[in-house]
């Protein structure tokens, strides 16, 4: 195919379908419709002048960032989509070549944009290039579901995730800042494998996730229990917690600081930021024939001054 002028026959058949599908499923960046004018205050303005439409990628509908590409007929495309359409213009099907749209890039750079999490409460306005960076750490960005037992892709704010944990994962909810929790596994297979449990505590009007699970620490089978705070790290640091497990005159205690659920369950576990109990001790505490796990983990959450 000749560069610049060729028609990309190979993708013509499948293109219209995938184009529609992409538009319908990947339109997530709502902020493209809100462009601040500088004098409109901090909420930005609903733009009706079409500038935002110019900057919306025709394939994925997200805001285009430089480099912005155009085909020989002037149709623009974001760099991600340029790769995805195999360099073939989705509008006129000419080969894209390597033409930048510098004018549009300049327009893009001159804009001030609202954070994409505006719907969730963020009213900040950003110059074009700071927007993406801010959004990655925006405190209004949705949290991931803290449930660890399966791949769960649900995201949302804390009240939404609390009801999601209760309704969709059947997680136990408890009120109060002290707890005394029994973990019982009578199936030896479960004792040795990825046993994990999650309990949520309501305390000081906030929610804390108590995790308990088995994992391999190097060659050693251990259990770990730790607390995660359903909120930002800066707030998590205002709390402390203690955990205690034992029996027959022996006990392990742990005092720590809850981690924010911004840190994944796996990250916290792998950093061993919690009460780590070697399996043989856990089975000793459980008594009996060492075939079942019967642990009582007690603990307390308090607010640091
Ligand atoms: Zn695109
Ligand atoms: Zn074109
Ligand atoms: Zn924001
Ligand atoms: Zn979930």
TrEMBL record:
Which SUPFAM superfamilies does the UniProt record give? RING/U-box, TRAF domain-like
Sorted UniProt keywords = Metal-binding, Transferase, Ubl conjugation pathway, Zinc, Zinc-finger
InterPro entries in alphabetical order = 7-in-absentia-prot_TRAF-dom, E3_ubiquitin-ligase_SINA, Sina-like_RING, TRAF-like, Znf_RING, Znf_RING/FYVE/PHD, Znf_SIAH
User: What's an example GO cellular component term for this entry?
Assistant: autophagosome
Main localization of the protein?
cytoplasm
The domain of life for this entry's organism is: Eukaryota
Protein's job: E3 ubiquitin-protein ligase that mediates ubiquitination and subsequent proteasomal degradation of target proteins. E3 ubiquitin ligases accept ubiquitin from an E2 ubiquitin-conjugating enzyme in the form of a thioester and then directly transfers the ubiquitin to targeted substrates. It probably triggers the ubiquitin-mediated degradation of different substrates. Mediates the proteasomal-dependent degradation of ATG6, a component of the autophagosome complex. Requires TRAF1A/MUSE14 and TRAF1B/MUSE13 to target ATG6 for ubiquitination and subsequent regulation of autophagosome assembly.
What species was this sequence derived from?
Artemisia annua
Q: Where is the protein situated, by its record's location annotation?
A: Cytoplasmic vesicle, Autophagosome; Endosome, Multivesicular body
Does the keyword section mention Metal-binding?
A: yes
Biological-process GO terms, alphabetical? protein ubiquitination; regulation of autophagosome assembly; ubiquitin-dependent protein catabolic process
Q: What's a Gene Ontology MF term here?
A: zinc ion binding
Which family does the entry's similarity section mention?
Belongs to the SINA (Seven in absentia) family.
**Catalyses which reaction(s):** S-ubiquitinyl-[E2 ubiquitin-conjugating enzyme]-L-cysteine + [acceptor protein]-L-lysine = [E2 ubiquitin-conjugating enzyme]-L-cysteine + N(6)-ubiquitinyl-[acceptor protein]-L-lysine
Q: In which pathway does it act?
A: Protein modification; protein ubiquitination
The chain positions of domain SIAH-type read 110-170
EC assignment: 2.3.2.27
Query: For the RING-type domain, which residue ranges apply?
Result: 57-93
Does this UniProt record's set of keywords contain Magnesium?
Answer: no
**Designated name of the protein:** RING-type E3 ubiquitin transferase
Q: Give the enzyme's main class according to its UniProt record, as a single word.
A: transferase
């Amino acid at each position: 195919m000749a560069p610049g002028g060729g028609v990309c026959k190979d993708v013509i058949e499948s293109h219209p379908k995938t184009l529609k599908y992409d538009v319908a499923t990947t339109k997530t960046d709502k902020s493209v419709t809100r462009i601040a004018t500088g004098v409109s205050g901090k909420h930005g303005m609903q733009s009706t002048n079409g500038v935002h439409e110019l900057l919306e990628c025709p394939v994925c509908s997200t805001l285009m960032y430089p480099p912005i590409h155009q085909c020989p007929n002037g149709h623009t495309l974001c760099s991600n989509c340029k790769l995805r359409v195999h360099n073939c213009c989705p509008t006129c099907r000419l080969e894209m070549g390597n033409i930048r749209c510098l004018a549009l890039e300049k327009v893009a750079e001159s804009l001030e944009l609202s954070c994409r999490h505006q719907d969730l409460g963020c009213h900040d306005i950003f110059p074009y290039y700071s927007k993406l960076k801010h959004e990655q750490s925006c405190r209004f960005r949705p949290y991931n579901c803290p449930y660890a037992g399966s791949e769960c892709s649900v995201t949302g704010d804390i009240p939404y995730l609390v009801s999601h944990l209760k309704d969709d994962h059947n997680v136990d909810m408890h009120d109060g800042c002290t707890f005394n929790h029994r973990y019982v596994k009578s199936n030896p297979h479960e004792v040795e494998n990825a046993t994990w449990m999650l309990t949520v505590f309501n305390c000081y009007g906030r929610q804390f996730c108590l995790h308990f699970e088995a994992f391999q620490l190097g060659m050693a089978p251990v259990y770990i229990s730790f607390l995660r705070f359903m909120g930002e790290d800066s707030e998590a640091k205002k709390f402390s917690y203690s955990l205690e497990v034992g029996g027959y005159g022996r006990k392990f205690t742990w005092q720590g600081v809850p981690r924010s659920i911004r840190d994944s369950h796996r990250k916290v576990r792998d950093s061993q930021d919690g009460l780590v109990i070697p399996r043989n001790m856990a089975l000793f505490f459980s008594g009996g024939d060492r075939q079942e796990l019967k642990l009582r983990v007690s603990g307390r959450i308090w607010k640091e001054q």
